[in-house]
């Protein structure tokens, strides 16, 4: 398989896809009423996962929709439906996705078909949920520290347990991930290291840390049976903020992502540095638009998160 070219200077439009945490009751429901292609994607996803995704997205309950093994296929399906409904209104040159969103980015670039994507994220969600349930663990957002200080905080609070930086989302916001007691110690010590705040996150467990190692090992076996296609355009990886150079790297980096930090700020800085001017956040919520405002205040991200937003895009293209 030939290598992908380096991200070029003339690329102007990027697709951004949200990850777990963007889910909410009502997401994608308006698309089901007005777009046949959205109904087709939901039909396929429900058949492949045996999950009542329509009902969960429209009615919840919220605690069920937030489960890792449900949220991941639900967000992937809704994001794919929004992308399909937007159609030619968005012509992408490159893409990136936050954690789970990287799978949607790869799907959008043609590295895999929808059926493969749904099966992968459903399996991923199951494995991550299992790993989270096996160890009492969590995540805590630390406000106001740089990477070096956050690493020092991890060292001080770990006390022999798993604790590591898991998400570099934007300036001044780093998420730590690890065993529950270690997260609690980090929150208690955060101000001593100069943090302005520490916020425990409502997650199933310590994502993007060694707590997910069993999930990574099992997921590598799943990926071994998948054949990816060379993406039609560049997809930037969370692991190193670099574009995938080959299909072999897709498997390697998707496994690594489970136990490695998400370098979202660096991903966006890479796209900004290579001349990307237009950004579309495709999927539920506006999390990535908010992060971009803190990474680069001059850059606007258009949220494609509803039927109304898609209609507005289509009207602008007419």
Would you kindly provide a written description of the structure presented here, covering whatever features stand out?
This protein is α/β, with parallel strands linked by helices and 318 residues long. The chain has helices spanning 29-34, 36-49, 53-59, 62-65, 68-86, 101-108, 114-134, 147-158, 180-189, 213-224, 247-259, 264-273, 287-295, 307-317; strands spanning 13-17, 94-97, 137-143, 163-170, 173-179, 197-200, 234-236, 278-282, 301-304. The strands form two sheets. It has a five-stranded parallel β-sheet, sandwiched between helices. A four-stranded antiparallel β-sheet has the order 4-5-3-6. α7 runs antiparallel to α10 (213-224).
Poorly predicted runs of 5 or more residues: 1-6
Number of strands: 9
What percent of residues are in strands?
Answer: 5-15%
Count of DSSP-assigned helices: 14
The main sheet comes to: 5 strands, parallel
Gross morphology: globular
Which class of secondary structure composition applies to the elements?
alpha/beta
Question: What's the alpha carbon Rg, rounded to whole Å?
Answer: 19 Å
Query: Mean pLDDT score, rounded?
Result: 95
Distance N to C terminus: 39 Å
User: In which order are the strands of the major sheet placed?
Assistant: 7-2-1-8-9
Element-by-element helix/strand order: EHHHHHEHHEHEEHEHEHHEHEH
Quick description:
The protein contains 14 helices and 9 strands. With 318 residues, the chain is α/β, with parallel strands linked by helices. The strands form 2 sheets. Strands 7-2-1-8-9 form a 5-stranded parallel sheet, sandwiched between helices.
């Amino acid at each position: 398989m030939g290598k992908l070219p380096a991200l070029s200077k003339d690329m102007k439009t990027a697709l951004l896809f949200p990850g777990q945490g963007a889910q909410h009751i009502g997401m994608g429901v308006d698309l089901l009423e007005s777009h046949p292609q959205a109904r087709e994607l939901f039909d396929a996803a429900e058949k492949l996962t045996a999950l009542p995704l329509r009902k969960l997205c429209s009615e919840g309950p919220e605690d069920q929709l937030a489960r890792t093994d449900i949220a991941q296929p639900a967000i992937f399906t809704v994001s794919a439906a929004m992308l399909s409904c937007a159609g030619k209104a968005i012509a992408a040159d490159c893409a990136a996705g936050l954690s789970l969103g990287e799978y949607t980015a790869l799907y959008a670039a043609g590295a895999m078909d929808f059926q493969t994507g749904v099966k992968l994220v459903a399996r991923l969600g199951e494995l991550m949920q299992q790993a989270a349930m096996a160890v009492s663990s969590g995540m805590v957002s630390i406000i106001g520290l740089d990477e070096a200080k956050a690493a020092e905080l991890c060292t001080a609070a770990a006390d022999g347990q798993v604790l590591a930086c898991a998400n570099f989302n934007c300036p001044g916001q780093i998420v730590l991930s690890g065993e529950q007691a270690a997260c609690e110690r980090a929150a208690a010590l955060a101000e001593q290291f100069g943090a302005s705040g520490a916020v425990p996150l409502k997650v199933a467990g310590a994502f993007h840390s060694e707590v997910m190692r069993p999930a990574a090992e099992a997921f590598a076996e799943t990926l071994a049976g998948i054949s990816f296609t060379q993406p039609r355009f560049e997809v930037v990886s969370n692991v190193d903020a670099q574009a995938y150079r080959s299909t072999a790297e897709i498997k390697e980096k998707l496994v690594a992502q489970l136990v490695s930090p998400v370098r979202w700020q660096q991903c966006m800085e890479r796209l900004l540095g290579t001349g990307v001017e237009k950004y579309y956040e495709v999927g539920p919520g506006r999390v990535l638009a908010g992060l971009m405002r803190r990474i680069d205040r001059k850059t606007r991200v258009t949220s494609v998160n509803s039927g109304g937003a898609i209609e507005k895009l289509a009207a602008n293209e007419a």
